[in-house]
Amino acid sequence: MDLLWTGLVTMVLDYLQNGGYRESYLSINGLEWSIKKVQAKPKDLLLFHAKRPNAFYDGEIGMPVSIENNATLTELEFLHQVVSSAGDFLSLREKDTRTQHLVGFKEKYNELKHFVLER
Predict the structure, then answer these.
(1) How many C-beta atoms lie closer than 10 Å to residue 36's C-beta?
(2) Helix 75-94 and helix 103-117, axial crossing angle in degrees, nearest 10
(3) Residue 80 near residue 56 (C-beta atoms within 8 A)
(4) What is the pLDDT of residue 57?
(5) Predicted confidence band of residue 30 (pLDDT cuts 50, 70, 90)
(6) CA distances from 101 to 5, 55, 107, 113 (A)
(7) What are the DSSP calls for 31-96, one per residue?
(8) Among 28, 41, 30, which Cα is nearest to 1's?
(9) Which residues lie closer than 8 Å to 96 by C-beta, 6 or more apart?
């Protein structure tokens, strides 16, 4: 779970710093994410795409199935939700005694939070 949050926060931070489009890949489970800015009025939108190409076997239909989802929302709503959810995760993990490997995540989270709050 730590790697999942670190990957997502890093991707969103890169998106904000470099604009327009970013993608990420988590090799542990083959999860792929991408975010893309969609210019719109009155507010810019963001297209979020998530895909788990590693197929799992669905016994009901008797074949492998991948999972893929898309969502479109305002860019600011997405950014605030990521910051809020990542903050909740960080708070939960800090209560755990095994937090020594959260240093990198905490730095990225604080940088993203600062970046979003400036908007």
Answers:
(1) 15
(2) 150
(3) no
(4) 55
(5) confident
(6) 13, 30, 11, 20
(7) EEEEEEEE--SSS-EEEEEEEEEEEEEETTTTEEEEEEEEEEEEHHHHHHHHHHHHHHHHHHHHTS
(8) 28
(9) none
Fill in the DSSP letter of residue 97: S
* Three-class secondary structure of residue 28 per DSSP: coil
**pLDDT for 43-94, tens place per residue?**
999 999 988 776 665 556 565 656 888 999 999 999 999 999 999 988 888 7
Strands 31-38 and 45-58: antiparallel
The CA distance from 75 to 85, in Å, is 15
Residue 38, both tokens = 């969609």
Average pLDDT of the segment spanning 94-104? 70
Cut 0.85: pTM above it: no
What percent of the chain clears pLDDT 90, i.e. is strictly above it? 39
What residues contact residue 91 under an 8 Å CB cut-off, 6+ apart?
none
